[in-house]
Amino acid sequence: MESALTARDRVGVQDFVLLENYTSEAAFIENLRKRFKENLIYTYIGSVLVSVNPYKDLEIYTKNHMERYRGVNFYEVSPHIYAVADNSYRSMRTEGKDQCILISGESGAGKTEASKKILQYYAVTCPASEQVQTVKDRLLQSNPVLEAFGNAKTLRNDNSSRFGKYMDIQFDFKGAPVGGHIINYLLEKSRVVHQNHGERNFHIFYQLIEGGEEDLLRHLGLERNPQQYQYLIKGNCPKVSSINDRSDWKVVRKALTVIGFSENEVEELLNIIASVLHLGNVQYGGEDSNACITSDIQIKYLPRVTLVLSVFACLHLSLTFLSLCVFHHQLMSPLNLEQASSARDALAKAVYGRTFTWLVNKINTSLTYTVYTRTHTNYSVIGLLDIYGFEVFQHNSFEQFCINYCNEKLQQLFIELTLKSEQDEYEAEGITWEPVQYFNNKIICDLVEEKFKGIISILDEECLRPGDASDLTFLEKLEDTVGGHPHFVTHKLADAKTRKVMGRDEFRLLHYAGEVNYNVNGFLDKNNDLLFRNLKEVMCMSENKILTQCFNREELSDKKRPDTAATQFKASLAKLMEILMSKEPSYVRCIKPNDSKQSGRFDEVLIRHQVKYLGLMENLRVRRAGFAYRRRYEVFLQRYKSLCPGTWPNWDGKLSDGVSTLVKHLGYKPEEYKMGRSKIFIRFPKTLFATEDALETRKHSLATKLQAGWKGYSQKCKYQKLRNSAIAVQAWWRGILARRRAQHRRQAANTIRRFIKGFIYRHKERCPENEYFLDYVRYSFLMNLRKNLPKNVLDKSWPTPPAALTEASEHLRKMCMQNMVWSYCKKINPEWKHQMEQKMIASEIFKDKKDNYPQSVPKLFVSTRLDGENINPKVVQALGSEKMKYAVPVTKYDRRGYKPRHRQLLLTANSAVIAEEGKLKQRIDYGTLKGISVSSLSDGVFVLHVPSEDNKQKGDVVLQSDHVIETLTKLAICADKINSININQGSIKFTMGQGKEGIIDFTPGSELLVAKAKNGHLSVTAPRLNSR
């Protein structure tokens, strides 16, 4: 980390503890801004990681990055989520103590992504076996499932977690992840039945509708249109451009399989999701005091998908009547329209909420590694807490009250554990602990949770008391009971200035992070969270195995009133605090840079708001209350020993003495540092910065000395090695050369002797005297042939063979030619074959007949000379179903005056069409085309001859094309008139209509010229390109 201090002016400091002006919020935010601008989204506050959501993909999460942080000291590398994950893992392994990582922040700050990165890090870097790999896969795949059922699109975040999640990752003695356990907190069930404008319901509803197969939707009675379902249109935002529901559905279905859901369980789970949608479409009518269901279609689907087949009447009745037990008699009381709608929504919320709890339990079952638990009872744990941050909205209700109460408890725990960690480190190093003044928010926690006097107790009491209890009576009770509390204010108790910004149905709590006004409307209903007994009875009758587990029949016989939502949350929060207190914590504080989810935009007002609500300045103040920097002696001495002659290059004594010598040489004052048992503590960042700047200056002189010494030594060693090597090589090489020369002389003499004897006996039958010579002659011919083989099928050259190889040479020549022909044919692709066929037809028609044919040979024919943009859509529409095979721009010469007109020649399967802009000027069917005339010169003029008796035609057509060879070849192929193209010399006669004839005279000249001659003929002058 110290290596980055030299760039601190540009990119800020990596640890806020090193800020000189650490009490300034502006300096804190400016440091964040510098790092965010450089895509450095992670910064430390001591061991706390601050993460700013970049809203874009950064290349800092690859396997190479994971390996870089694996097993490395926390402060040796730049801040990263992987550093926190690895530090917790190593602490768990070395100290044998359970760890937890607390991730908090606003919606959209990146909490869920941070937890995913930690899980991915453990999945890649931890040791694994085949069984352990299954657990890793299930841990990773649990995320998309929980996100589908527990996340939703909100105004602040397209993938906002609407529940708190604590996940335990269990590791065996080898450090491999072998299991896990998830605890969920406070699912926002109200979202099932209502969403604010611009927000959506939980993802799973849209994923099912958009991605579900047609057979599945038909079975569930659903349509592929979210607008058809009342529970999905409350926020008027059924589709979001940044969310691909169809793709996400495939991911969720695969994840359910990986986790271990059977096909029956998946089917029953989707039946429940569909039943919630159908339940939302149940509409009521009738009189106000006696509601009745008016939407029979939706109510008929409900029994089928919830498997309450035998009790259709009971379900219908339960949604319109309330069952009361009076003196052991069952009475049915009709519900009014408001009560019936509330009962319907309560059932939908209960079904979804309990199903979500079942889903979490099912995932926990799949994460339990049974083989491991049977053989080992002890395991280490790393917990991940991904929980909602402090929330302040324009309208704050019961959910925000619970969330902010949770954050108060976490802040209390955070400060206590941070102070405890600091105090333990000071005591371990033998340094006097200096008490730190900080805001103790226990007073706020007591205000909320104290027995009999706290807000939750008063809320429960108001929910349970008989009579006309309402949200306003609850507010009055609060004023009477806790009205004198310094952190509690209502409109009635406030001063005149505060009353202007507070409603009469609101109360204000002064949290550690600021003031929040809570609207009491809905507090009692949300806290009661009750479901009518007769609706529970109907759900207990379901044959859906998931619903039978969610709605236990024991509930019906249990006369005890269930705990309220606030009490349940308070109890679960107390258990969470116990879990966190039993573990060694690490912290990740997530910050959202802007509300518009834009990359690179830094909203200072929004960030200042989050820095305050996350308590980061308070945390920094606690961390800086003592010493800003601390390092072990060996680390400090190893880095800075070059700054002191007494410690450079090596220190052989005690480490503490070496550090003491070093700091005295650097001129540290006694109040600037303290020496602990194994660490040095530096109080001020400026002291460290001065040391780091001195080291940066010292590096240059050190580098020069090291380079000079090393260069001299390396060059001397290199010279000695080269000299010795040269002497050895020279001696060895001389011997080799002498032996080679003697051997070569012997071989040369033998070869010459054998060659001369063979030449003498060359005309005789093969014998020992001439076999060498004859073999040499054959070999020489074959080697010569190998070097001089024909290059292509047109190359007829072939070396002259000796007399003995004449027959063999002929066979080889034929084989070579066959091979070249076969290779050439094999390389021809369909497009080139088609091109060659056209070229062959062109050759057959024009070769040695038309002057400009040789120039067209090397040019490839194209499929069309006009693309779709050049052809008027009206022409394409007029052609109808006829497919256009070729199109080319042409010039048409009028029959009267030979005035040139720009036209387009279009060839279809049945006819040639001449078009002008958006009109079809003339259509010539191939069957009526008598022939085509063209001159032998290099001009592009040609005549299409049509029958004079055809009333549809006005005579022959005179056209000119810049690509006449290509155009006529295409026309001949399309019309099957290859033999009907006449190449004339001198002149061409053509019919002008009404029995009149016209003549085109062709004369060679220096340049192309087409004009009407004085004799009334069309004169065409064209340069002669080739002599025939």
Structure description:
- With 1028 residues, the chain is an alpha+beta fold.
- The protein has 5 domains: 1-277 and 381-399 and 585-629, Kinesin motor domain (Kinesin); 402-520, Methane Monooxygenase Hydroxylase, Chain G, domain 1 (Up-down Bundle); 630-739, 2-Layer Sandwich (Alpha-Beta Plaits), CATH 3.30.70; 770-826, no CATH class; 831-1022, PH-domain like (Roll), CATH 2.30.29.
- It is 47% helix and 17% strand.
- The chain contains 35 helices and 31 strands.
- The strands form 8 sheets. It has an 8-stranded mixed beta sheet with strand order 23-22-21-20-26-25-24-27, with helices on both faces.
- The radius of gyration is 46 Å and the shape is extended.
- The two termini are 86 Å apart.
- It comes from Oreochromis niloticus (Nile tilapia).
- Keywords: Acetylation, Actin-binding, ATP-binding, Cell membrane, Cell projection, Cytoplasm, Membrane, Methylation, Motor protein, Myosin, Nucleotide-binding, Repeat.
- Residues 850-1024 form the TH1 domain.
